[in-house]
Task: inverse folding
């Protein structure tokens, strides 16, 4: 059922300024990333003032409209502009999936962090089950959108070990882009740190990525990936986090992430020098 125009919530005689599109309001409330919020709307799981909404781009006033997901109303404090966001940096271990829930009963990243004052955190982007490394956890949907959408070009760096001696020629092939089933990979940066006779050690920086891109791209040129760890997201680095540990980002780090997202990828990001305060 396609919803028609939705009026103000009962009990309100006048309507305030229209603040945001519905998917943005859901993202700001920490319900999901903007893209995931769009899926919730498409699936008919979101209602405004009692009517199911399936149309993208509907404008809402979170202070006046009654917004609900799966019939559960969003608390007014959750959609207020002054809501305090939470930002965590987690070192995801191998064997943990980067999703909110898993139908196969596998451990997820949410199992590794406790609830934070009832806030619903979600991972920013994906990191495959066979890899470990840095994953951002937040309830800030707008920042999530900027960090994950390819148009913003936020760089992510990976420490990769390959089977075989990687040649400069093959490294340049990967840098220039490799054709995979869904198309050619975007340009990347490959730094050879050690090329041994049996194992090569490289650093790879991507500004956009396809599913398991690094593994598939190197396999395409003849070098199976032995291990893969994400070591940097924009300017944010681990600084001592061990697998399974996390720490909150400070204000400078959050501001730096926002600046990188707005500016886009322009050359190598200089990591912020922060001492890790790991939690468990």
Result:
């Amino acid at each position: 059922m396609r919803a028609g125009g939705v009026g103000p919530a009962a009990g309100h005689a006048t309507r305030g300024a229209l603040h945001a599109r519905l998917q943005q309001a859901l993202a700001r409330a920490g319900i999901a990333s903007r893209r995931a919020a769009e899926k919730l709307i498409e699936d008919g799981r979101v209602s405004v003032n009692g009517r199911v909404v399936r149309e993208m781009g509907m404008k809402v006033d979170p202070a006046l409209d009654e917004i609900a997901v799966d019939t559960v109303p969003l608390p007014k404090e959750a959609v207020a502009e002054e809501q305090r966001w939470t930002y965590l940096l987690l070192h995801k271990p191998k064997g943990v999936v980067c999703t909110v829930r898993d139908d196969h009963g596998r451990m997820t990243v949410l199992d590794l962090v406790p609830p934070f004052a009832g806030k619903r955190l979600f991972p920013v982007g994906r990191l495959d089950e066979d890899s470990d490394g840095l994953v951002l956890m937040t309830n800030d949907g707008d920042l999530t959108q900027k960090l994950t959408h390819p148009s913003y070009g936020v760089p992510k760096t990976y420490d990769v070990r390959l089977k075989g001696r990687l040649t400069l020629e093959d490294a340049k092939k990967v840098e220039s882009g490799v054709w995979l089933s869904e198309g050619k990979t975007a340009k990347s940066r490959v730094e050879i740190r050690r090329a041994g006779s049996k194992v090569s050690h490289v650093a790879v920086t991507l500004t956009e990525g396809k599913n398991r891109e690094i593994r598939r791209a190197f396999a395409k040129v003849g070098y199976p990936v032995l291990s893969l760890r994400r070591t940097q997201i924009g300017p944010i680095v681990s600084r001592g986090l061990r697998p399974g540990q996390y720490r909150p980002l400070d204000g400078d780090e959050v501001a730096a992430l926002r600046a990188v997202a707005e500016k886009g990828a322009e050359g190598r990001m200089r990591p912020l020098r922060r001492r890790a305060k790991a939690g468990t």
About this structure: DSSP finds seven helices and 17 strands in the chain.
